[in-house]
Amino acid sequence: MTTLTAFGAAREVTGSRHLLEVADGNGGPGARILVDCGVFQGRREESRRKTAEFPFDAAAVDASVNTHGHLDHCGAYPLLVRRGFRGPVWATPATRDVARLVLEDSARVQAADARHVGKRQAADPRAGRVVSPPLYDADDVAEAVARFRCVEYHRPFDLGPGLVATLFDAGHILGSSMVRFDLARGDGQEPVRVAFTGDLGRRDMPIIRDPESP
Description:
By secondary structure, the protein is of the alpha/beta class. The chain is built from 5 helices and 10 strands, in the order βββαβααβααβββββ.
């Protein structure tokens, strides 16, 4: 059995997290693959609450595929690692490089925001502002980036028994990708295909290539 659960970017447009669970051919546990692990972008407290929520066991996720390096698609990987994730994060080389810059900046912004709110609360204690520590720091970012594994477009890679993924150019930003999963069914049956566009770009734009078809 194959199940797909959206834990973000479902009925809203930020905080992308999708868990694909594929059983092995004997009905046992196969692979648990997380597509993207993004930050929810919104008001401070709502953003923190939704970003910090993991309704699944991070340590039980076998691998992840990151479609691109925007914060709402990659920004929670350091938190995922802090919660116990130890698998690889597959992405194009450019996505890995963009994500590293975005995550390092995110850690700095969170630290600066905590200092800012703390100063405002100290100046006016009656305001009752909540000073929340950053969700992750530079060390967490370094550990998350170290888990990235680079793969080029159109080059299939294995994610578990009977599960192969291939990246295609999404034409959104540098390195952005769609991911197509091919799920073997055995007994001579055709594989089941599941594809995620990530964020899909437009055609005939300068610099960025047109999106491909998976």
